[in-house]
Automatic annotation (TrEMBL):
Pfam families: NMO. It comes from the Bacteria. InterPro entries: NMO (IPR004136). Keywords: Flavoprotein, FMN, Monooxygenase, Oxidoreductase. The keyword Nucleotide-binding does not apply. GO terms for molecular function: monooxygenase activity. This is Nitronate monooxygenase. CDD domains: NPD_like.
Length: 314
């Protein structure tokens, strides 16, 4: 594929980025995606600082190609995590769930490429003003933590593109080559894909969860817990408990109490499909098999090229 602003920025072959997902994206997945020509990302959100260090070191041994670390800024140990990223000479950092002004200048000073994840035009512009190198604009279809505005990817990408000067990466509801092409026609320079890589051999998430993603159909996910932090979940016993609690007009404290601690770890990493929090995107209804990450990249790029060839005939 010919180079564009994102492939040049990250020095990668394809404008395809694997999302840094909690409990799913360790060094095995990140290195596999990078080796296949995309940009693999280690998700620091579910890692203690020293665990992150270990994943970075193992990723370096498993690939000589660029990879990134995703850092949700609402987690504790943030300074320690940033120290490790600097010490281990990570070249690309994706930040999310926080103010890009806080860390962007510090990371940029150390020569690190910084990308921030947003769910609205307003925050895309704030990120650009903060000095980030690129923005991921993530639509409402995405799994995990999500925007309160409920703007879909199809709407969000052209709106952000209209206002933004820096490179734009589309995320949310993309798992196929045709989806990738559609996002790029709407103005994205690249796509970020999460849910499809959960159902990969190298994802560190539990086999039970991977299988539930594969079995999911349209309508099996929903956005909830907006009062805490909006999150898209697969419908299971825990989701039903949340829905039932909402009928009582609960306080934030009651919702927090029901959520408890380590609920996401219980579901996605330990495989408790009843009591766990199972974060996945709407596109899970289109995911039908668990295959190696390299095969996913290959499949998406092949479909992208095939769909692109057909465009002149429309």
């Amino acid at each position: 594929m010919s180079q564009n602003r994102i492939t040049s920025l990250f020095n990668i072959e394809y404008p395809l980025i694997q999302a840094g997902m909690i409990w799913a994206s360790g060094w095995k997945l990140a290195s596999a995606v990078s080796n296949a020509g995309g940009l693999g990302i280690i998700g620091a959100g579910s890692m203690y600082p020293e665990v992150l260090r270990e994943h970075i070191q193992k990723c370096k041994k498993a690939t000589h190609k660029p990879f990134a670390v995703n850092v949700p800024m609402l987690y504790p140990n943030l300074e320690k995590i940033m120290d490790i990223i600097t010490e281990e000479e990570v070249e690309i950092v994706f930040t999310s769930a926080g103010n890009p002004k806080t860390w962007t200048p510090i990371l940029k000073e150390k020569g690190i490429i910084v990308v921030h994840v947003v769910s609205s035009v307003k925050f895309a512009l704030k990120s650009e003003a903060a000095g980030v190198d690129a923005v991921v604009a993530e639509g409402f279809e995405a799994g995990g933590h999500n925007g309160r505005e409920e703007t879909t990817t199809f709407t969000l990408i052209p709106m952000v593109k209209e206002k933004l000067e820096i490179p734009l990466i589309a995320a949310g509801g993309i798992a196929t080559g045709r989806g990738m092409l559609a996002a790029m026609i709407l103005g994205a320079d690249a796509v970020q894909i999460g849910s499809r890589f959960v159902a990969s051999n190298e994802a560190s998430s539990h086999q039970n969860f991977k299988q539930m993603v594969v079995d999911a159909e349209e309508g099996h996910t929903q956005l909830t817990l907006k009062e805490l932090a909006p999150v898209r979940l697969l419908k299971n016993k825990f989701f039903n408990d949340v829905t039932e609690l909402y009928t009582t007009n609960p306080s934030k404290d009651q919702l927090t109490e029901l959520l408890g601690r380590a609920r996401a770890k219980k579901g996605m990493f330990e495989g408790d499909l009843d009591e766990g929090e199972l974060e996945i995107g709407q596109i899970s209804g289109l995911i039908n098999e668990i295959i190696p990450a390299a095969a996913i990249v290959e499949e998406i790029i092949a479909e992208f090229k095939k769909a692109k060839k057909k465009l002149p005939n429309f």
